[in-house]
Amino acid sequence: METAGGIAETFRNGTFLITGSTGFLGKILTEKLLRSCPVKTIAILVRSKKGFNASQRVADIYKQALFDRLRNEKPDFMKNIKVIDGNIEEELLGLSMSDRNWIFENVNFVFHCAATIKFNEALELATKINIQGTDNLLTLAAQMKNLKGFVHVSTAYSHCPRNEIREQYYRTPVTAKELKNMLGTDDLSESKILEDWPNTYTLTKAITEDLISTNENHLPVSIFRPSIIGCTKSEPEPGWLENMNGPTGILTGVMVGFLRTLQISTDKVTDIIPADYTANALISVMWDTICRHQDCGNHTSEQPKIYNYVSSTESPLTWDEYIRGMTEHYYVSPPLRSMWYGFYLMYTNLWIGMILKFFLHRIPAAFMDFLLIITGKSPKMLKMYAKTEFMTGLLRVFTTKQWKFDNSNIVELLSSLSIEDRDQFEFSMDNFDWKSYIKSYYYGIRKHILHEELSNLEKALSKNWKLFWLHKLFIVLFFYSILQLCWMCMRYICSF
Q1: What is the DSSP code (8-state) at residue 75?
Q2: Is 2 exposed, middle or buried (0-12, 13-18, 19+ CB in 10 A)?
């Protein structure tokens, strides 16, 4: 295949439009493009919110530690960033006339990362953001005079009701057009439309893929399906992350002693991919999209290509390996903010789970709320556990099930890259070093989520030692109380 040259060279003096640039993946993507590619401009689409315009909302983003390396290597990188006030939910993205004309004249590459990723988002809102928002952006892209590539970020779990997910399109319960016509009517029955999908996020991503599959405007489009995005492997620093989505929230809860029981099938594979590898794969998919479009003579009518970016096909990692790996580092460097000694019991049976949550979450929470009340403070622990258990319940399908993925297009893409590009934009999961990654993940949570430096290690170990013995004491008291209760019951029965 005749290519456009190396990745960085392909993007030389190019202008990008990135949606979702204030999100986790969007930030890492922007940082990598600015640091590794000679781009002309990266336009980031940001909507006004809570009385703050786009420029005000992003004022502090590029001061974050994530951009320290870029700041050192390219101190004037901000001159390559253009902030555009817009909202993907609105027609023509709610752009001003001047911004719209600028986009039409200048944008060459579009990364569509924006989405609502809330699993319990109302179907109507998820539809407006994930489906209609994508349709609005595609309409805008059709008017870009120099568009060379458009990559839509979906999810590897868009068709999670299936056991095997290949790099192809599948039918959905409704089409984007049918769902749009249902909005605001009595026909919009969320439970009926969801069918076998566990949440509105995965369903709307699937319907969006169906929308893109027609490629009515004959755009150079591809669909990128990442699995569970974890912390960074190495760039711009190991272990960087900024939110508690997915497994990060679960592990953080365990580390501080808040979560003590988890609904997880330990033998199932958890399909985690590093955030920096994901950005590199996404950039490479854009390059491949451009190459395919050039081969088609700048006019493509083919169905957009799909890329499943997963880890389970080359380097499967079970939940047991993942959590035990984290636990090893907990013993060495526990967090100072721990509220209890870190331990956990895992279950798959719902009845057993109810019992475990009652004894390990609800009873301690009720006791803590009682102490808060008698000290004149407002109770909060029971509410916190109710909210946390609801959120972890939304993850149940992903912690108790595994899928077989096909990633042939990603493998083919990797083989088409030059040695230099494979090094510069590394994303191969073949023989991945999970041990070092899990270590980076643990210390990344400790640093970026719990905001703790290793300078507090001596205090943290001392506190954890006390919590350990307090934990043992409560276990002894618990079993002593059970034995006493059994003994009283036996005496009562024998008295008859």
Answers
A1: T
A2: exposed
